[in-house]
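Input record (one chain):
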Amino acid sequence: MEQRNQHPAGRRHFAMFDTFRFFAFLKVFLQHLPIVAFAWFNFARAGGIIGVQFFFVLSGFLITYIIFDEKSRTGTFSLKNFFARRVLRIWPLFYLVVILCYATPWLLHLLHAAKMEHGYQPVWWMSALFLENYKMIAEHTVPNEQALAVTWSLCVEEHFYLLWGLLLWFLPARVFPWVAGIAIAAALVARTIFFHYHMELADISTNIHFFAIGAIPAYLLVFHTDKTKRVVSSVGKMGHTLYAVFLLVYVLLISQADIQAQIQIWLTCISAALFAGLIFLSMHDENYLRPSRLLTRLGVYTYGLYMYHSFVLVFFIRVFTSRHWQLDSPVYATLFAITALIGTVVISWLSYKFFEKPFLKMKRLFR
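The corresponding structure, as predicted from the sequence alone:
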């Protein structure tokens, strides 16, 4: 997940996307909250996977924009520098979380606390090699370390960086529409096969269409800038606002729907296209959706928010359980949600400032 950092001259920073990242994380966070005190909360929490899908679409845009922007300005693209920047962004926090997950049973033993029983026993080398998602597919369940389960999407992201970087380095930009079209078609075929065999949709082949559809606005921004500016300007402030409201309603409604597998396959393309539409309307200065300073700042910490929130939830569940504070009580449920979110934000801020940022500063060596 590309985060805000120092950018080379000419490359844009899309502040509104930080706000989008936070809302995508919030959707995932709400789904993982173990709250049963409010009937209406089930409506808001459903469909956390949509938040992950929005992350994928955003990554597709940002990675494609970085590659094509460099190609358009310099006539070439450094694959070595690209992979080095991705490593500095993803690997430090990823491996820290993996180490914490494998240390959890030992810590629980010291604290005489119960360990989660359901789920498979993870294999360290598969976790370390970004293969946890394939272990989940093979086992038809999640690992018995809850925080390790969220790394499946990071595995998909890492596989996307490798595949997309090689493709766009090797192929000329003019064939990109064909690349995107083939990727979308391949994902539809893969999802059909996975649905037929009741397999988890947790690999790059079943999710590549999110990245590919998200990449389309990036291609248009770099190579058809003036045309996209005119389109965005013609939509106007009212059009931007109505589109954002429509998308919010769509996400809430689609999260509740019990849809057949065959329709779900095509519906993911519609969802990705709608997310890409929001990105398209927000990628120019003519964007009328102005980012909130608070949400933009929180969006900078989204990678940490996503990776740490499971640890924080488990911690507060143990705290509330030890004090016999039941989450079916509206008061305690509200207190749990607020403290868990604040705790996640604080830990993510500390992680970004004192652990991740030194690695991010090293990215300037690979411009």
